[in-house]
Structure formats: structure tokens, C-alpha cells
Design goal:
The chain is an alpha/beta fold. The chain is built from 14 helices and 7 strands. Helices cover 42% and strands 14% of the residues. Strands 3-2-1-4-5-7-6 form a 7-stranded mixed sheet, sandwiched between helices.
């Protein structure tokens, strides 16, 4: 299947990156290369783009899409958590912009055998962003304790029926292992009142989100690496991050605010004594949202939020 992905908030992201023709930019979630293609179009002879993705299909697709810019593009199969090392290996100390598009790609959702979507009835429970990883969604569903299932569905899926869903999963797998998305869908549906299902969207949506986040360590990777990525920015360099649910957005918002104002002194202190210096400023006091036009042609953009941080001229 061809790798297809509609780049969300494309024009807004490119505008906020403030691309310099001779700049160096990193797309930490390369995907199909949609955002990167627009970055490359704006680069001059000395400009450079580093594309990082852990998905083999994305690497292949982006390589083809960016082929005309091969003289200025370097693609690395890795997780963006390794960005600092990737740049060190390329002997790059600072970059002018970093982009993260944290959503699951359209290709991943539309390829049933990847197991990301609850809309397929007979797909294997996989959900791995990086297929080199051994652990799959099937392992989580069949091997996690009821308490751990409850925890991830509650915390990562924010589902008020998490306890009942976990209980139903554990009961069902005692009969036979849960193998497919269809089997899991029916179990989840049986754990949620029908009157809620009528008005609350697909009953599996939150549980699938929770399992995917747990499996791919999505929130830990984001939380643990934002500071390092800001440190990689050159003065006036910008980081643009597109999130798709409240958990991600909360992490980004909090981190950007902390990097703008890291002072931990009590408000009663007349002067700062902690000596923690600001790394820059939050450009987006409120997140940038998709336009009405984009919402009409790409329904998957409806939960997207773009936040931007600009590195200061640190002395």
C-alpha cells in the first residue's frame, strides 16, 4: 500500500518555522515527508534538512517524495528521542528549526495489518511504530494485569469506563487469547453502556489510544526530550510541535512555559536567586488550530494543536 498522509496544519507550521534559505532543519517525525517537502522548497544551496522516523514504511515513502532534494536531505531511521546523537553523528551542533508532528499517520491508520485502527475487524493487534520492536499491542492486551490495563486506559485513554473495560478484557482472555481488532472491539463494546455508545463516538477509540501510547512510550519520549531539543536550537531557532490529544498538548504547553520562565524562587522574593535562565519565549500563547477549510477536507485534523517556542539569544 502506498504511504499516504495528509500533513496537518501544513501552511501554519511552515510559516511559524520562519525558514532561512541557508538554515538547518530537523523533522523529527518525518512520516510521508509532507512538511519536509515544503521546508526543502524554501531552502537554498546551503540549506539542509534532517528527517528522522522510526517507521520503515515512512522512511521509504519520504525518501521517494524528497528525492529531488537529495543533495540537501539526510534521512535517518530512528526515534526523535535520539535527535541529539543523530546530529552529533552528522557533526551538527545547532539547528534553526525542529518540527514534531505527533499524530499517527494516515498510512498507519489505513493499513489494517498495522493494527492501529479500531475500524478494521480482522486486523492483528500490532500498533508498533517501529516494527523492529518485539512487544506488540497483542502482548499488552493478553499479558498485562487487570490493574495495569485499568491504569493505562484510565491515564492514557482518559476513559471513565476503564475499570470495566480492563475487567472485560481479562475475563475474555481466560477463554482464549485476544488476537484481532474485531475481538477487542466486541469486548470493549460489551463493557460500555449502549446509551453512551450511541452518543459518545466509537467505544474503542480511547482504549486503542491508551494501548498505542503505552506500547510506543509516546508520552515518556516527549516529556524526556523536549529540553534537549530546545538546547539544540540556534538563537532565534524555532520548535513547532503538533499534538493530537490533551495529554501531549499538556506536556508541550507546560514544558514551553517552564523553558520561558524557569525561575523557582517564591513570588515573595524581591529578586531571583535560583539563577535559572530563560531559554527563550513561547510564541503561541494559545495553540494554533486548523482552519475551517482544513477541517472540511481532512477530518483527522480536528483535534490538532500547534505550539511554537523560539530560542532566545542566550549569553
Amino acid at each position: 500500500m502506498e504511504f499516504k498522509h495528509k500533513s496537518v496544519l501544513l501552511e501554519e507550521t511552515i510559516e511559524e518555522l520562519k525558514i532561512k534559505p541557508d538554515g538547518i532543519y530537523v523533522d523529527g517525525t518525518l512520516g510521508g515527508g509532507g512538511h519536509s517537502y515544503e521546508i526543502c522548497k524554501r531552502l537554498g544551496a546551503k540549506g539542509r534538512l534532517i528527517g528522522i522516523d522510526q517507521d520503515e514504511d515512512a522512511i521509504c515513502a519520504a525518501g521517494k517524495r524528497l528525492e529531488e532534494f537529495s543533495d540537501k536531505v539526510t534521512i535517518v531511521r530512528s526515534n526523535y528521542s535520539n535527535m541529539k546523537q543523530v546530529l552529533q553523528d552528522l557533526e551538527i551542533e545547532q539547528v534553526d528549526g525542529i518540527l514534531l508532528d505527533l499524530g499517527v499517520s494516515s498510512f498507519q491508520l489505513d493499513t489494517p495489518e498495522r493494527g492501529f485502527t479500531y475500524r478494521s475487524e480482522d486486523a492483528p493487534l500490532d500498533m508498533r511504530m517501529d516494527k523492529r520492536q518485539k512487544l506488540t499491542a497483542r502482548d499488552i492486551v493478553n499479558e498485562y494485569s487487570e490493574m495495569d490495563l485499568f491504569r493505562i486506559i484510565r491515564d492514557y485513554g482518559e476513559d471513565r469506563f476503564a475499570k470495566n473495560i480492563a475487567k472485560h478484557i481479562v475475563n475474555a482472555r481466560q477463554e482464549k487469547p485476544i488476537e484481532t481488532t474485531g475481538e477487542l472491539n466486541r469486548i470493549i463494546s460489551g463493557a460500555i453502556p449502549m446509551k453512551v455508545q450511541v452518543t459518545g463516538g466509537h467505544p474503542s477509540k480511547r482504549t486503542y489510544q491508551a494501548i498505542r501510547i503505552e506500547l510506543n512510550h509516546e508520552l515518556e519520549v516527549l516529556q524526556d526530550n523536549l529540553d534537549d531539543m530546545i538546547d539544540l536550537l540556534a538563537p532565534e531557532g524555532r520548535m513547532c510541535i503538533i499534538t493530537f490529544h490533551s495529554l501531549e498538548d499538556r506536556i508541550v504547553k507546560s514544558n514551553f512555559k517552564k523553558n520561558e520562565n524557569p525561575c523557582t524562587c517564591p513570588s515573595s522574593f524581591p529578586v531571583c536567586v535560583c539563577n535559572k535562565k530563560s531559554k527563550g519565549m513561547v510564541v503561541t500563547r494559545k495553540p494554533i488550530l486548523p482552519s475551517q477549510e482544513e477541517l472540511e477536507y481532512n477530518s483527522r485534523s480536528k483535534s490538532a494543536k500547534l505550539r511554537v517556542f523560539e530560542k532566545g539569544n542566550l549569553k
